[in-house]
Amino acid sequence: MNKAIRAAALVAALPWNSAAADPAAASLRAELDALKADYEARIQALEARLARQEEQLRAQQDEAREAPAQRVAAVAPATAGTRAFSNANAFNPQISLILDGRMASFDRDPEDYRLPGFALGGEAGLFEEGMSIGHTELSVSANIDHLFFGRFTAAMAEEDGETEVEVEEAFFETLGLGKGFTIRGGRFFSAVGYLNQQHEHAWDFADAPLVYAGLWGNKYLDDGVRLSWVAPTSMLVELGAEVFAGARFPAGGERDSGVGARVLFANFGGDWGASHSWQTGLSHYAADVEARAAGGHGHGGEGGEETPTFTGDSDAWGANLVYKWAPRGNYRQRNFKLQAEYFAVDEDGDLVVAGSDPLEFSSLDGDQQGFYLQGVYQFQPQWRLGLRYDRLWSDNHGSDPEVLAEADLLAEGGDPERWSAMFEWLPSEFSRLRLQYNRDDSYRSRDHQWFLQYTHSLGAHGAHRF
Amino acid sequence: MMRVQWQRLWSKWMVAALAMVALPAAAELRVFACEPEWAALAAALGGDRVSVDTATTAAQDPHYVQARPGLIALVRRADLLVCTGADLEAGWLPLLLRKSGNSAIQPGRPGHFLAAEQVRLLAVPERLDRALGDIHAAGNPHLALDPRRLLSVAERLAERMAAIDPEHAAAYRERLAGFRNRWQAAISRWEAQAAPLRGRRVAVHHPTFTYLEAWLGLERVAMLEPRPGVPPSSGHLAELLEKLRAEPVDLILHASHENARPAGWLAGKIGVPALALPASPGGSPGVGTLESWMDALVADLLHAIGAEG
Fold first, then answer.
1. Torsion over CA of B41, B46, B49 and B55, rounded to 10 degrees?
2. Does any CB of chain B come closer than 8 Å to the CB of residue A55?
3. What residues does each domain of chain B span?
4. What distance in Å separates the CA atoms of residue A437 and residue A448, rounded to the nearest whole number?
5. In this predicted model, which residue has the larger pLDDT, A311 or A19?
6. How far apart are CA A277 and CA A254, in angstroms?
7. Where are the domains of chain A?
8. Do B252 and B204 meet the contact criterion of CB atoms below 8 Å apart?
9. CA distance linking residue A381 with residue A386, whole number of Å
């Protein structure tokens, strides 16, 4: 029809004299032209339809030639979507299950493990000696509707002969609030560090870096809200803030009525050519700590358990850097990943040994810091090698050094240090076998640790973070 | 006095900040393409009305792309996302979408365009089991290697661009008409040229060329990967060698981003050519456009079997 109008317009624009000479003929010609144009358009549409049908027919014939195992069920060509399911199960969320287990060997008794100068909280500590299953992780996620995405992750682990289920994640997230904003609410891993936002099964080593064990209880998660914003720039600039209830280590053992912990973070990243990518982040964490059990081991006092608890302010600064390389950006064959994180914590408050009689207490001016640096090289599609170095320092003071000693907050003349090496075989994208060795100088004499670990993933193929 | 100055400064900053946010939206249509074939198609249909960024190059295996910070920044600013779908990008695209905070390109929005949803896919598995390898439930995703399917995608993509940028709808349709004419002529040319390829027997590294095989009538008799996505083991290659000695093939194909060694080894043993083909435009010099890419695919295949015009 467009063409008809255009033809009519063309005729109307003809020089006046010819139209004036014979207006009837001109209008007749215009009508004729319009008719011709109209037919042309119709014929073109018909031709296009015919071509499409031919294409479908050819596609069907080609499919018939395909090997039987790959033959397509004879369904009508998809129109807007894929196949027409009338199955309520098609809306089931993505479910993935991580199976994780290991064999661990230590020279020293893992029950005696300590990190002098640091409070072991959360899940920090060594694995069980011998064969044991680690975290069995069940994750369910889906778009809730056009506005929200949701995920639930439960980690099941056995502790002291009892199976414990921990809700690691239960959050919703906005889907494109627009202008680069995203809000997440519920329980989730804080963006305080790079490794902290990865699930344990995505870690490159079997255990957490010492700085995560010493400062975050292996990983920091809590109930709260996050607001983040991605700037409209060619380089990634992401700014965000989180507020948490502050109920979990290292914020405290008791729930604050309001906000117990706050995190600010900024991430920057980009590419250098096709082969190199980088990301760097800065973060700040502040918490009002309320009766946090400090020190992993309680002393059996005469009148019952004695547990050092800390109440005060905690401030932490973090910096991280990740660099990845793959020849021409093709990660399939070979790639290398360099990763480093640094944290420094400053704590001011009071240590009280709960359950002691008479009550023992001390002031605490704590200064703890540490970093790890690791490199992982995938030299063939199924094989990876990794090396990691861990180092911690602490400088904690208080009015009563004995109380600090009881809380494991004295360095005892040596700062923890550890070297780790790992070797992985990945038969497919969904399975992994890992052998890891740690030369651990965390505590007094050296410990040689060996882990043989499997991590398998069942179900939905999850996307992995950078 | 101080206060007035402060207010002035503040309003200046606000204007600058607003300009930064508002300006890019007023300019051309920003397209984020997951693979180079869709970038080339979007550029062909959009001309100078669009600016196109590509997540991957032909040198990269699109299954194994990292959700890089640079890609999040690109998705953040995109008006239209053009990807393959069918889970080809399952390992990285969902994360980019969620991290971007960009509402225009989320699934279900007009700015979210998946090629696999526009045409019928081949090799839809009858049984879904990870023991069969990294199979795609919706079917084989490498559909751009069938130029007829690519034309169907082009028709839909031009409509989508017209819907998102209605001001220039006529321009997109016009460019589509031009593309359709050129492409249909090219298909006839390729089909005529490729006649000697019909019925040739090939072994492939990975099911990357399923659509090309179906279109040109190549017969795939073996796959080097024991299962899709699992690299060939020496045991599997030894078995293949026996099999291919008994039933010879004319060619061994692999994508240029795939490991060339297994194909090269096997080809050397049985004395047939191993051929690396670019799975996307831009894989080798001079094949940057869709047409030159297809030209090169057909020419390379003909050259390899010694039947060039």
1. -20
2. yes
3. 22-189, 195-304
4. 7
5. A311
6. 42
7. 2-70, 99-459
8. yes
9. 15
pLDDT less than 50: residues of chain B: 1, 22-26, 309
The token pair at A82 is: 């894929």
- What is the C-alpha radius of gyration for chain A, rounded to an integer number of angstroms? 32
Distance, in Å, from the CA atom of A117 to the CA atom of B119, rounded to the nearest integer, reads: 63
Instruction: Determine the Cα–Cα distance for residues A196 and A199; give it in Å rounded to an integer.
Output: 8
| pLDDT value at residue A2 | 53
- Identify the CATH assignment for B195-304 out of 3.40.50.1980, 1.10.10.60, 3.40.50.1820, 3.40.50.2300: 3.40.50.1980
Selected residues 294-353 of chain A with any CB under 8 Å from a CB in chain B: 324, 328-333
A212, A219 Cβ separation under 8 angstroms: yes
Nearest CA to A341 among A462, A193, A182? A193
Q: Which long-range contacts (CB under 8 A, 24 or more apart) does A186-190 make?
A: A186/A223, A187/A221, A187/A222, A187/A223, A187/A224, A188/A221, A188/A224, A188/A226, A189/A219, A189/A220, A189/A221, A190/A220, A190/A221, A190/A222, A190/A242, A190/A244, A190/A263, A190/A285
**CA closest to A70 among chain B residues:** B123
Confidence of residue A73 (pLDDT cuts 50, 70, 90): very low
Find residue A106's DSSP bridge partners: A449
**pLDDT computed for residue B135 by the predictor:** 86
CB contact under 8 A, B92 and A463: yes
Under an 8 A CB cutoff, do A72 and B122 touch?
yes
The angle, 0 to 180 degrees and rounded to 10, between the axes of the packed helices A23-65 and B147-164 is: 130
Write down the pLDDT at residue A3: 53
Using CA atoms, how far apart are residues B185 and A21, in angstroms rounded to an integer? 45
- Please list every residue in chain B whose beta carbon sits closer than 8 Å to the beta carbon of residue A91: none
- Give per-residue pLDDT as tens, A368-386: 999 999 999 999 999 999 9
Please state, in angstroms and rounded to a whole number, the distance separating the CA atoms of residues B258 and B264.
12
For residue A264 the two structure tokens come to: 């600010």
pLDDT in tens, A160-185: 788 899 999 999 999 988 899 999 99
Bridge partners (DSSP) of residue A96 are A139, A459
Task: Give the CA angle between residues A139, A140, A144 to the nearest 5°.
Answer: 150
What DSSP string describes A260-284? -EEEEEEEEEEEETTTEEEEEEEEE
What is the per-residue pLDDT for A225? Answer: 97
For the domain A99-459, what is the CATH superfamily, name and number? Porin (2.40.160.10)
- B22: number of CA atoms within 13 Å, CB side? 6
Q: Which of residues 103-142 of A touch B (CB under 8 A)?
A: none
ipTM of the complex: 0.85
Shortest Cα–Cα distance, B271 to chain A (Å):
25
Chain A contact set for B72 (CB, 8 A): 230, 236, 238, 269
**Which CA distances in Å does B290 have to A6, A110, A245, B214?**
33, 61, 55, 19
DSSP 3-state of A201: helix
- Quickly count: other Cβ atoms within 10 Å of residue A91's Cβ: 8
CATH class, range B22-189: alpha beta
